[in-house]
């Protein structure tokens, strides 16, 4: 129950931060990404603030032997930059640039009743399922050696 409560509080704080910073406003995000047009650099401060808090927090938290509500930390072992990472990042960037929605803000915007946000979230999940299906098909053709 503690984990659920902490997740709820964290989600509320995250959503509040997205709303206050206007990261759930696709027009604000598109204006930030449009560096050759009507550029709005204000979201850079949101990103820099998030990076600073994350950088400091990760340094402090990872010094602990284990997390508070888990048995161990769940960190990715992958650090290589490969073709799937680059292709995925490009597709993500195209989707973000075209729609103005990143996954977190899209989910947060569901609360506003936005049809655009709903289409975006459904599309994100469609992408998840397609990638999983595609990966399973390609792994059947090329089994690991």
Tell me what the structure shows.
It is a single chain. The protein is 68% helix and 0% strand. It contains 6 helices and no strands. The mean pLDDT is 87. It has one domain (2-141). It has 145 residues and is mostly helical.
Mean model confidence by pLDDT? 87
Low-confidence runs of at least 5 consecutive residues: none
Number of helices: 6
Give the oligomer, counting copies of the same chain as homo and different chains as hetero: single chain
Helix and strand composition category = mainly alpha
| Fraction of residues in helix | 55-70%
| Main beta sheet strand tally, sense and closure | none
Question: Strand fraction band?
Answer: under 5%
Kindly report how far apart the N and C termini lie. Answer: 43 Å
> What does the radius of gyration come to?
18 Å
Order of helices and strands: HHHHHH
Q: Compute the number of structural domains.
A: 1
The geometry reads as globular
**Using DSSP, what is the number of strands?**
0
List the helices and strands and how they pair.
Blueprint: H1 2-20, H2 26-33, H3 42-61, H4 83-99, H5 103-109, H6 115-141
